[in-house]
Amino acid sequence: MLKFSKLAIITLFSALAVNQVYAQQKPAAVVNGAIISQAIVDMRVKAEVSSKGTEDTPELRSAIKDDLINREIMAQEAVKQGYDKLPETLSQFELAKQVVLVNEFLQNYLKNHPVSEDLIKQEFENIKKTTGNKEYNARHILVKNESEAKSIAAQLKKKGKFEELAKKYSLDQGSRDKGGSLGWALPGNFTFADALVNLKKDEVSAPVKSDAGWHLIKLEGVRDFKFPDYREVKGNILRRLQQQAILKAVADMRAKAKIE
Length: 260
Hints:
- There is one protein chain.
- By secondary structure, this protein is α+β, with helices and mostly antiparallel strands.
- It is built from 9 helices and 6 strands; from the N terminus they run αββααααβααβαββα.
- A 4-stranded antiparallel β-sheet has the order 4-3-6-5.
- Helix 1 packs across helix 4 (87-112).
């Protein structure tokens, strides 16, 4: 189970940083006098189960304990060789400490500031209202400037085929080889939504400007869209609201912080 990535090293340092806190608890192993607490084993098992969906089995616990023992042996050898005094190592220690503290802050903030069911339902209704009940199947040709877009529009008026012109001129790597096809999507997914929803089937727009450049848009079709059931999207909405709350809390703390 040994993985020598930088993330794994940071995780190791995090475990070492909290090891003293667990030292008085039941040890899972003792390596040259250093205690590997049962709490740290439990923490690793919980992380493994939640992230990979594996079962909490004696075999998993044994493998994790062996891994922690190997890590402790390597950490002790690193100290013997003075690696704990290296500038980069000291920076890693500081980073590991920060990771642990930030995680604790986030967990406790969400615990002490729970998102209510009413707020989730309110956000669900807001999203549902702004999403609408139609989705659109469109093609587009993206070019750098308006003059290029007008030149292609002129070719379309002379019976040029939209798909062929998209393959020849469009800068959008994702849709160019598909004749500019963007597939079915809600209008909010497009930067040119206002122009798209005003088109009729098979109609091509005038050149439309966006941050990416200039677009010619062809509407291929419109169909009804059924918004997902509340239970299907509740988890995503909850995470979104939690993230917004955390970002606001951090912004408020940053505003009060002395940053030089």
